[in-house]
Amino acid sequence: MKYGIAKSFPFYARFSVPYLPKWMVRQVQKMQKSAFKCLYNRQDVQFSQYFKAYEPWSTQRAEGFDELEIDVIEPAGGSESPRQVLFYIHGGAFMWDAAKYHYELAARYARDAGVVVVMPRYRLTPSCRNPAQLSDCRLAWQWMQEHAEELNIDAAHAGIAGDSAGGFLAALMTEWAVIEGYTPAYQMLLYPVIDPFMRSASMERYTHTPVWNARRNKDMFLWFFGDRACVHTAARRDSCILDRVTLPENMPPVWVETAEFDCLHDEGVAYAEKLAAAGASVLLEETRGTMHGFDMFHTDITEQAVAKRIGFMAENSGTAGGTWATAQYRFAQK
User: Fold this and answer.
1) Cis before 184? omega within 30
2) How far apart are CA 209 and CA 287, in angstroms?
3) Is the pTM of this model over 0.90?
4) Which of 20, 26, 222, 256 could form a disulfide with 272 if both were Cys (CB 3.0 to 4.6 A apart)?
5) Residue 202 annotated as catalytic
6) What band does 288 get if pLDDT is binned at 50, 70 and 90?
7) Which of 124, 33, 30 is nearest to 71 (CA)?
8) If pLDDT is split at 50, 70 and 90, which confidence band does 325 have?
9) Would you give the end-to-end CA distance of the chain in angstroms?
10) CA diameter of the chain
11) What is d(CA 129, CA 127) in angstroms, rounded to the nearest whole number?
12) Residue 150 contacts by C-beta under 8 Å, 6 or more apart in sequence?
């Protein structure tokens, strides 16, 4: 085998996502609509769906969308005091809806970290391009603030997290939330997409890695921005945090987790280093023997990674949590 993927991952984890034409992507998107049903029979969490209507004059209406779905997963049983919140933005190359494993992980976070998970089902490419996805996340955030009392949550101090493409949106959401005057409890990015210009060494090295690679990453951005590959358009420049001259002050504690054999590895490290240099408290967890999206598979490596994430959330949101191992690198706050 070309890459040193841990043997605990199943054989089909060695295959990468193939290129799919737009018509096929839309068919798969229809099949994903009911992934949340995996939570229906669980006794440890409660699952609810809410809908936020778009304004009649909005561009969303013009594109044929009436409302934004927002999923809420909370621990079973009530709470007298407002619960802490995890605002989670799922990955999927901006084109795939939340998958079954996203809901299973969200349930685990809710149960073990004692948080309420708010997960927007944002619009997807190729039907909707940038900035539709980030716009939907902001709309869901505002909805969460408006319904904080109803949901019994501390919405103003929600942690913000995302995996893969969701990490790209989560990074921009955190920046926006801090600028808008919110005080997120933390930011947690899992093997995140960071650089729309794809300039890292790992992007050049990993063109055929399992699950995800530089070739598919290029296709993803073509659909997301609707432009030619890596051209310096205003949209790409505006969404590139790595090229910011300055970052907002008062950034929350940050957890960045990377996969070893992943084209996105180096840009995740670069993001952690940039935030640490700007004064943020940053933990960088570099998992070994892993590929992009490794936590969709039930292995010891996944279990250890998820336990560390839960520890980080518990430590920074004041919720109950067990002991957890220290990340391999810690960038001290300056």
Assistant:
1) no
2) 16
3) yes
4) 256
5) no
6) very high
7) 33
8) very low
9) 42
10) 54
11) 7
12) none
Active-site option among 164, 200, 202, 281: 164
CA distance 323 to 314: 10
Packing angle, helices 165-179 and 132-146, rounded to 10: 50
Give the integer Cα–Cα distance in Å for 244 and 259. 25
Is 232 catalytic? The answer is no
Determine the pLDDT at residue 34: 83
pLDDT at 253 over 60: yes
The answer to whether the CB of 73 falls within 8 A of the CB of 107 is: yes
75 beta partners: 45
| pLDDT tens-digit series, residues 35-53 | 888 888 888 999 999 998 8
What 8-state DSSP symbol labels residue 83? B
Mean pLDDT is lowest, of 69-78, 163-172, 297-306, for 69-78
Q: Active-site residue among 163, 239, 292, 295?
A: 292
Distances (CA, A) of 220 to 18, 196, 215, 283: 12, 10, 9, 28
Q: Which amino acid is residue 36, in one-letter code?
A: F
Q: DSSP letters of 16-69?
A: BPPP--HHHHHHHHHHGGGGGGGGTT-SSEEEEEEEEEPPTTSHHHHTT--EEE
CA distance 139 to 133: 10
pLDDT of 14 higher than 80: no
Contact 49, 69 (CB under 8 A): yes
262 given a catalytic annotation? yes
Neighbours of 71 (CB within 10 A): 22
Q: Which of 262, 265, 281, 317 is catalytic?
A: 262
86-107: per-residue pLDDT in tens? Answer: 999 999 999 999 999 999 999 9
Burial class (CB in 10 A: 0-12, 13-18, 19+), 177: buried
**E strand spans, the chain:** 45-53, 67-75, 85-89, 116-121, 159-163, 187-190, 254-258, 282-286, 329-331
The structure tokens listed for 194 are 């960071």
